[in-house]
Amino acid sequence: MIPSPRAVLFDLDGTLADTIEDLGGAFNRVLESHGYPVFPVERYKTMVGNGFLALTRRAIPPEAAADDTLVERINAEAEELYSEHFLDLTRPFPGIPELLTALSGRGILLAVLSNKPDRMVKRIVRSLFPERDFFVTEGNKPSMPHKPDPTAALSIVAHSGIPSSEWCFVGDSGVDMKTGLAAGMLPLGAVWGYRSREEMTAGGAAALLEAPLDLLRYFDSPGSFVPRR
User: Fold this and answer.
1) Among 26, 37, 112, 222, which has the highest number of CB atoms less than 10 A from its own CB?
2) How confident is the model at residue 49 (pLDDT cuts 50, 70, 90)?
3) Domains contained in the chain, number
4) Angle 68-85/118-128 helices, nearest 10 degrees?
5) Which pLDDT tens digit goes with each residue over 173-212?
6) Can you tell me which residues the record assigns to a coiled coil (predicted)?
7) Which residues are designated catalytic?
8) Over the stretch 147-164, which tens digit does the pLDDT of each residue have?
């Protein structure tokens, strides 16, 4: 429990922004171009979270996923197409802009960490939240391992000057919860996102937030917090 949190690290997809229509749409177009089966867009909610390359391997047929050269080519095609359309339908989740404003008003440091490619993360966050001053907005880079490895999160902590024990990690997946725990942060689950309560609880969530503004209620009374249903 953090009596007075000083910083919050957010996941992006499924936490700050609803990205699934653009992401699923781009992948389906690439799959279709190769003659592979496509998925209902909602299905992608259970497939994302471990980075673009992992999503590519999950989306293509097993025999194709065994060919590393083909996987890399399809992944590059999907990245290129998605980069042209990742703001077509993507929007902040309801309540997120208000939450970020309230947290900034309390002097809480804000940061973003995603397994999505770094250049995409920076463009999405800059476009969706142009007035918000995030301390760090970071996606996956070749120099850093994907979440749940805590290396990137710990790097953000080190540059902030705020101990990890005074950070919260807010995300919508077991991967996010495990990342927060491994980095020494308080992991809080975003129920409004893409993954199940069970997954986040199993990942180590200290609490589950039904809606973005529940984070403020949790900060104000962590010992007696009961999520709205």
Assistant:
1) 112
2) confident
3) 2
4) 20
5) 999 999 999 999 999 999 999 999 999 999 999 999 999 9
6) none
7) 11
8) 999 999 999 999 999 999
Cis preceding linkage at 5, omega within 30: no
Residues near 111 by beta carbon (within 8 Å), at least 6 away in sequence: 7, 8, 9, 10, 134, 135, 136, 137, 138, 156, 160
Tell me the residue type at 76: A
* Residue 55: both structure tokens together: 């999503």
* Same domain (yes/no): 31, 121: no
φ/ψ bin of 190: left (φ > 0), alpha (ψ from -120 to 50), beta (otherwise): beta
Residues 55 and 113 in one domain: no
Give me the residue label for tokens 């993507």. Answer: 90
Determine the structural domain holding residue 72 and report its residue range: 20-85
Are 22 and 47 within 8 A, CB to CB? Answer: no
| Residue in the structure block whose two tokens are 């000057």 | 161
| CATH number of the CATH domain containing 30 | 1.10.150
Specify the pTM.
0.92
Cα(193)–Cα(173) distance, integer angstroms: 8
* CATH code of residue 117: 3.40.50.1000
